[in-house]
């Protein structure tokens, strides 16, 4: 049966789910493509070559059992496919939507190398778990008998939520602290709905609440409690705050009105999607409607800003990036989507100044060229003496990446070890910080990275914390 359904990549073309037209999808924040119908998903899963060394799994940070659940999908055994997919990932349908598959699993698919087009792994992953939710196969978190120990998780992003779920399943009392009014971190407030509709995130959060995980919203460590307070309150603490401090553009006029940070802009847009009152959006400062918009940066956050501005009704949207298309860090799929929707990319350009009196009116930029490779192997951009350009702009969005906030100072914890980049230092094996019983995971350790890596880190640190807490309980029992 399995062999009859598989290895169809020679006579079956690659087919992603149909995208809505660019004009249609630019009018709303719904996801741009629907999920597969059942026969199509089974057909596309059947293209898998079932290779002996599954490079797709090797290059997945979670090492998902991709060929196995593709085979089960091709055979119509969707519930088994979901259960296998769910065994390695706490958020498979979210990864299916937002992972850069072109750089990870699909980019390393064996049949992609042979010229037949990769298996559409992300779309099938999304289909499997969306079907599971629709059919009622997603079960409540199975909670083990209470252990009498509690854990505090600082940060309700993907790393924190993953750790909270896995430790709650092991029987720990789990409290999650987040300074926002909803859980999800960047999943909720940083990623636009056209890539990840918010009910997809909220149903995951609701499942954790139903499991007895306690969420403390609007809770800022350093203001509402110190790190030491949380250490006294819980047997172990996880720092999973992510990195949120925007990198700055060091040019004249960077503080001019109308020059805004990407995360402020995206958060405002997502809050409006929830129906919240957002004064800076309602007053026009964070609304692109009717404006000439220039986005600075070439990563996925820049693409999110570009495509959000289009949906808000911007007059024009341009993206400045100092390298060329081939050397940009963002997903090529996202660039293609943005171009289809009307964005213009100004490659090999870097800002020189933001000019304006009361508000920004012009972006002056220099032409760039690619020189010799830098330490990372990428060709370093350098100024091209060929000239400058000027772009009209009523709104400039800085999307140059994120750095860590000064947690030791913010939290009154000078003894917390940090790297020279401001990220929290954690043991490579245990993920424990310089403070006994305080662990760290996700972007606050590795720097700005992918959601799938945050989930992987959450999975790893949950195992490490469980081992440490068991040893602590055993030692306390002996001492008693």
TrEMBL record:
InterPro entries: DPD_II (IPR028261), FAD/NAD-bd_sf (IPR036188), FAD/NAD-binding_dom (IPR023753), GltD-like (IPR006006), Helical_ferredxn (IPR009051). Transmembrane segments: none annotated. Residues 25-136 form the Dihydroprymidine dehydrogenase domain. NCBIfam families: gltD_gamma_fam. Residues 151-458 form the FAD/NAD(P)-binding domain. Keywords: 4Fe-4S, Iron, Iron-sulfur, Metal-binding, Oxidoreductase. This is NAD(P)-dependent oxidoreductase. Gene3D superfamilies: Alpha-helical ferredoxin (1.10.1060.10), FAD/NAD(P)-binding domain (3.50.50.60). It comes from the Bacteria. Signal peptide: none annotated. The lineage of its organism: Bacteria, Pseudomonadati, Pseudomonadota, Alphaproteobacteria, Sphingomonadales. PANTHER family: GLUTAMATE SYNTHASE [NADPH] SMALL CHAIN, GLUTAMATE SYNTHASE [NADPH] SMALL CHAIN-RELATED.
């Amino acid at each position: 049966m399995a062999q009859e359904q598989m290895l169809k990549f020679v006579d079956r073309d690659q087919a992603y789910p149909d995208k809505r037209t660019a004009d249609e999808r630019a009018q709303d924040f719904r996801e741009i493509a629907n999920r597969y119908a059942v026969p199509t998903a089974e057909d596309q899963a059947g293209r898998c070559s079932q290779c002996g060394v599954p490079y797709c799994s090797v290059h997945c940070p979670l090492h998902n059992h991709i060929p196995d659940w593709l085979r089960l999908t091709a055979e119509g055994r969707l519930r088994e496919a979901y259960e296998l997919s769910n065994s390695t990932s706490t958020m498979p349908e979210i990864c299916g939507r937002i992972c850069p598959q072109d750089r990870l699993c699909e980019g390393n698919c064996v049949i992609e190398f042979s010229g037949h087009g990769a298996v559409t792994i992300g779309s099938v992953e999304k289909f499997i778990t969306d079907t599971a939710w629709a059919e009622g196969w997603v079960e409540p978190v199975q909670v083990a008998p209470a252990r009498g120990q509690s854990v505090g998780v600082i940060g309700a992003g993907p790393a924190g939520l993953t750790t909270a779920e896995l430790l709650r399943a092991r029987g720990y009392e789990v409290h999650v602290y987040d300074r926002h009014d909803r859980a999800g971190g960047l999943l909720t407030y940083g990623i636009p709905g056209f890539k990840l509709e918010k009910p997809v995130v909220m149903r995951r959060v609701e499942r954790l609440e139903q499991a007895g995980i306690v969420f403390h919203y609007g809770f800022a460590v350093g203001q509402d409690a110190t790190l030491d307070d949380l250490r006294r309150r819980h047997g172990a603490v996880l720092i999973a705050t992510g990195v949120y401090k925007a990198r700055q553009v060091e040019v004249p006029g960077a503080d001019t009105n109308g020059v805004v940070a990407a995360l402020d802009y995206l958060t405002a847009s997502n809050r409006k999607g929830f129906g919240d009152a957002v004064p800076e959006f309602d007053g026009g400062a964070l609304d692109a409607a009717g404006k000439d918009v220039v986005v600075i940066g070439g990563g996925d956050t820049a693409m999110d800003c570009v495509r959000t501005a289009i949906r808000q009704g911007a007059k024009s949207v341009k993206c400045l990036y100092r390298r060329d298309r081939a050397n940009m860090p963002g997903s090529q799929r996202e660039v293609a989507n943005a171009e289809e929707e009307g964005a213009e990319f100004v490659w090999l350009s870097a800002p020189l100044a933001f000019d304006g009196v009361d508000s920004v009116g012009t972006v002056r930029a220099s032409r760039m060229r690619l020189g010799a490779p830098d330490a990372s192997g990428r060709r370093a951009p350098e100024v091209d003496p060929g000239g400058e350009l000027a772009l009209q702009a009523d709104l400039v969005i800085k999307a140059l990446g994120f750095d860590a906030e000064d947690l030791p100072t913010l939290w009154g914890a000078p003894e917390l070890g940090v790297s020279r980049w401001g990220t929290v230092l954690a043991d490579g094996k245990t993920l424990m910080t310089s403070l006994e019983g305080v662990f760290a995971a996700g972007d606050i350790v590795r720097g700005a990275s992918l959601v799938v890596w945050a989930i992987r880190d959450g999975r790893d640190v949950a195992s490490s914390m469980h081992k440490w807490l068991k040893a602590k309980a055993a030692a306390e029992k002996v001492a008693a």
